[in-house]
From TrEMBL:
InterPro entries: ANF_lig-bd_rcpt (IPR001828), Glu/Gly-bd (IPR019594), Iono_Glu_rcpt_met (IPR001508), Ionotropic_Glu_rcpt (IPR015683), Iontro_rcpt_C (IPR001320), Peripla_BP_I (IPR028082). It is a multi-pass membrane protein. Residues 1-21 form the signal peptide. This is Glutamate receptor ionotropic, kainate 2. It is found in: Cell membrane; Postsynaptic cell membrane. The chain crosses the membrane at residues 561-582, 636-657, 829-850. Keywords: Cell membrane, Glycoprotein, Ion channel, Ion transport, Ligand-gated ion channel, Membrane, Postsynaptic cell membrane, Receptor, Signal, Synapse, Transmembrane, Transmembrane helix, Transport. Its main location: membrane. It comes from Musca domestica (House fly). The lineage of its organism: Eukaryota, Metazoa, Ecdysozoa, Arthropoda, Hexapoda.
Length: 955
């Protein structure tokens, strides 16, 4: 059985080999020629591999035979003509090459005349489409068209990288052709692009790198050089720190990956280096892997451009020729001759070229090595894909397509173990950001004990805390660099200074302070999203509040008025006394019980008259009133005078006390414009002055013109200088500044205040160099700080000052919305009240002592006994009846004491009975006394009536 199966296997193999031999014998043999310069071994190896793979295709109907010719290194058109003619004499159906070393198109012209397809795989920088349509009809190039490559670079720089300022460096004419479109970036001014030729610095390349670093301060370089020159050039640039962090290199040669930069990568290559290459076809995961990698496999796997394009050129021609020859057209070998008269063009040649322009990459076998093969009507490759990658680690980043789109690539890139030591991407290492700023409260300040700290620890402020929080979120280190000011623009030299200069020259990576986002600044630097919103307002001097007068209630009348009022009252008192004495109606009977008294009494003595005058002017009245007509007329006139004076005083008092509010002489920008006594200005060259100078609003333009006209200049060199001028001017100078700095200063100085509403709207942001790749991360981090309320906390921490309290914070009339009066302004009223009370008490004490003396004399006791008795009685507030004599006071006191002792010794029952009896007896006594008093009053009334009638009758 085993022998039987072995016999069948031998028979099957024999039949299979016989069939293959038959197929080979039935294939049409097509000769192809190739021209190579010496040293192009890799390209020749790719050519042979492509022919071998095609010939090994079992179902491929054509068999290709190669004829090679080698060109000396000397560029000689006669030699090329001779070698081309030799190939034509060998009846070749296509000619491949030569490479771009040949500066003549003699091969293309001969092939065009002979009708032989001419395959190009290298750059052709001298492309004239009209000339190509007429004299290069048989030429087909699989190399990417230079015009399309230049457009691809423009898309990458403009759309993906967003570079607006860079330096171009090239080595060859081909390199210049590849980067020529970059000089026409629409968003970039010509002064932002500099171009240098390496050939001009071949004596000493360090001159070039020094110029780029010290003169250009360039951070973005686009270089096109040969692969073998790349590593030595970068090593020289490394000496000038051009490979440090925040530097960006874009290498445009399509063979940069074969330069050895991958192996040369080390810790010194910290810059972001990217390059491009023709994108290869992704490997088929189901394809059988080779156990043995040959030299040509490694060559094509490395995507070296010329060998790869040679391979694709052979595949393109072979498939086009097969489609034409096997499509029904009889194959006739070309019979072109360079020296034969009357020779004719090969008929199938133009059909094969036409098929190459129509063929699809999905219809060829073996497949192309590069993606997106499309030949246009001029025989140029118009479509291809470029791969953007990092040559230092050979990692793909994105893919450019002919439609201008750039798609990011995300995949795990496998690196062989032999190169694992060079895998690390040193460009991603932790960076140290140089943060440029300047001293400005409260953004950036020196600590009070700064001498006790070193480095960045001696600084404090809003900007310091903000950068610290950003560094924690983005995980970067930083160091502060101090300059003078945010940056002023010189319109003559077109140069900036301060923070702006440092960012433009790339001496710093972040600018932070009170740096306003303006359109002019955005032309030179980029800004993050705002971290603070603000406007413009007026800083003005607030004078000390007027010293409040405790006798403010006297201010409604002048001193003379008060003197005349007092004098008038004295005169009226004397006049009233005189008029009362001559008026018989004012003389009354002093004793109503006597019907016919011998004397009459006049109650309008000086003290009663003065009491009437005072009560009238106080609007309180008096219990004593005049009876005669003259006296009533005089009293009415005095009442009229008192009414007018009191009404006038009341109205004037309200006006005087509420008009003491401190009001500034200006309340808005319009008030500043309409006056000429107070000068006003802004920070010279700052965003505030730019706002007024470029505004089209009438008031702002008027304000700007007035500021320019002031002598001496109203502009200041810094905000601090402006604040000092306001403080020292004491109302003669106003400073227009941003509301953030204004509120900070008014919070700490009671002599400063904000006048008017906010003008306009502005924003503070972090400034970074143009096109900085970390700007987006900074913006995202700032938004997170805003969403978590951290920015508000920072502002509250550095703006609000709880250590300074102005004296007039509570008593300042400006702080009161109504007309309320302070305690100080009404203090005089209280003083008058207290003074009157004290005087009354003193008079009362003197009167008490005088009465004690009289009692002691009358009752013949010592003054001490009299004083003691009178004082003890006065302190017994519950006793309402006073005996007439001191002995009665003492007796009543003793009786009261004995009764109290007896009452405590009695029983409770007798106590209640005693209390009832005492109450009854007291009630009966009170009722008897009240009856007697009523009878006496009625008698006195009747007697007074009878006496008055009698007196009036006799009168």
């Amino acid at each position: 059985m085993y022998r039987y199966w072995c016999l069948l296997l031998i028979v099957f193999n024999t039949l299979h080999i016989s069939c293959e031999l038959v197929v080979v014998e039935t294939r049409t043999t097509v000769k192809v020629g190739a021209l190579f310069f010496s040293g192009e071994d890799e390209t020749e190896l790719a050519f042979d591999e492509a022919i071998r793979q095609i010939n090994n295709q079992k179902l491929f109907e054509l068999q290709f035979e190669t004829i090679k010719r080698y060109v000396p290194n000397e560029d000689d058109s006669l030699v090329l003509q001779q070698l081309t003619c030799e190939l034509l004499a060998q009846d070749v159906a296509a000619i491949f090459g030569p490479s771009s070393r040949a500066t003549t198109d003699i091969v293309a012209l001969i092939a065009n005349n002979a009708g032989i397809p001419h395959l190009q795989y290298d750059w052709d920088i001298d492309i004239d489409l009209e000339q190509r349509r007429l004299n290069h009809q048989m030429s087909v190039s699989v190399a990417p068209a230079l015009q399309t490559v230049a457009r691809a670079y423009l898309d990458i720089i403009r759309k993906d990288y967003k570079w607006r300022k860079f330096t171009l460096i090239y080595e060859t004419e081909q390199g210049l052709a590849r980067i020529q479109d970059l000089m026409n970036v629409a968003e970039v001014k010509r002064e932002n692009i500099k171009i240098r030729n390496l050939a001009e610095y071949e004596d000493d390349m360090r001159v070039l790198w020094k110029e780029i670093e010290e003169d250009f301060h360039e951070q973005r370089l686009i270089m096109d050089c040969k692969p073998e020159s790349l590593v030595p050039l970068l090593n020289q640039a490394k000496e000038f720190k051009l490979l440090g962090p925040f530097r960006n290199w874009f290498l445009t040669h399509l063979d940069t990956h074969s330069s050895g930069l991958f192996q040369a990568n080390n810790a010194d290559f910290q810059s972001n280096i990217t390059s491009v290459r023709v994108k290869g076809v992704d490997a088929n995961p189901f394809e059988r892997k080779k156990t043995r990698i040959t030299e040509v496999d490694q060559l094509l796997g490395n995507q070296t451009m010329l060998p790869t394009l040679m391979y694709d050129a052979v595949v393109l021609f072979a498939n086009a020729a097969r489609n034409v020859i096997t499509g029904g057209r009889e194959f006739v070998e070309p019979a072109g001759r360079c020296d034969a008269e009357g020779s004719y063009a090969w008929v199938l040649g133009k059909y094969i070229v036409g098929e190459m322009k129509r063929i699809s990459e999905d219809d060829v076998e073996p497949p192309f090595k590069t993606e997106n093969m499309k030949i246009d009507e001029y025989g140029l490759r118009s479509e291809f894909n470029l791969e953007i990658y990092k040559p230092t680690i050979n990692e793909p980043l994105a893919t450019w397509s002919p439609d201008g789109s750039i798609q990011s690539v995300r995949r795990d890139f496998q690196i062989s173990s032999s190169s694992s030591a060079a895998v690390q991407d040193f460009a991603q290492s932790r960076r140290v950001y140089r943060v440029v700023t300047h001293i400005e409260e409260p953004y950036f300040m020196m600590k009070e004990d700064a001498e006790n700290f070193r480095g960045d620890e001696k600084y404090e402020g809003y900007a310091v805390d903000l950068i610290q929080k950003l560094s924690e979120m983005m995980e970067f280190e930083y160091e502060f660099v101090l300059v003078n000011g945010n940056g002023k623009f010189n319109p003559v030299t077109k140069e900036w200074d301060g923070i702006m200069r440092s960012l433009i020259d790339h001496r710093a990576q972040i600018g932070v302070c009170d740096l306003t986002i303006t359109q002019l600044r955005r032309k030179y630097v980029d800004f993050t999203v705002p971290f603070m919103q603000l406007g413009i307002s007026i800083l003005f001097y607030k004078p000390d509040p007027e010293v409040k007068d405790i006798f403010a209630f006297l201010q409604p009348f002048a001193k003379e008025v008060w003197m005349y009022v007092i004098l008038t009252q004295l005169v009226m008192t004397l006049a009233f006394v005189f008029m009362a004495r001559i008026s018989h109606h004012e003389w009354e009977n002093p004793n109503p019980l006597v019907e016919d008294p011998e004397e009459l009494e006049n109650k309008w003595r000086t003290r009663n008259t003065a009491w009437l005058m005072i009560g009238s002017i106080m609007q309180q009245g008096c219990d004593l009133l005049p009876r005669g007509a003259p006296m009533r007329m005089l009293t009415a006139m005095w009442w009229f005078f008192a009414l007018m004076m009191l009404s006038t005083y009341t109205a004037n008092l309200a006006a005087v006390l509420t008009s003491n509010k401190i009001k500034p002489s200006i309340e808005s920008l319009e008030d500043l414009i309409d006056q000429h006594e107070i000068k006003f200005g802004t920070l010279e060259g700052g965003s505030t002055s730019l706002f007024f100078s470029e505004s089209n609003e009438t008031n702002y333009q008027k304000a700007w013109n007035q500021m320019k006209s002031f002598e001496p200049s109203a502009f200041t060199k810094s905000n601090k200088e402006g604040v000092e001028r306001v403080r020292k001017g004491e109302g003669k100078y106003a400073f227009l500044m941003e509301t953030t700095s204004l509120s900070y200063n008014t919070e700490r100085d009671c002599h400063l205040q904000q006048i008017g509403d906010q003008i306009g709207e502005k924003h503070y942001g972090l400034a970074v160099p143009l096109g900085a790749d970390y700007r987006t991360n900074l913006s995202v981090s700032i938004l997170k700080l805003s969403e978590t309320n951290e920015l508000y906390k920072l502002k509250k921490k550095w703006w609000k000052n709880h250590n300074v309290t102005c004296e007039d914070d509570e008593t300042d009339p400006q702080a009161v919305d109504g007309d309320e009066l302070s305690l100080i302004e009404l203090g005089g009223v209280f003083l008058v009240l207290v003074g009157g009370i004290v005087v009354a008490i003193i008079i009362g004490i003197l009167e008490f002592l005088w009465n004690v003396q009289k009692v002691a004399v009358r009752e013949k006791v010592t003054p001490g006994e009299a004083f003691k008795a009178e004082l003890i009685f006065a302190l017994k507030f519950w006793i309402t009846k006073k005996p007439n004599r001191i002995s009665s006071i003492r007796t009543n006191s003793d009786d009261t004491t004995s009764r109290a002792s007896r009452s405590t010794s009695r029983r409770s029952s007798s106590q209640s009975k005693q209390s009832k009896q005492s109450k009854h007896s007291k009630h009966s006594k009170v009722s008897k006394r009240s009856k007697r008093s009523k009878r006496s009053r009625s008698r006195s009334r009747s007697h007074s009536k009878s006496r008055s009638k009698k007196y009036s009758t006799s009168g």
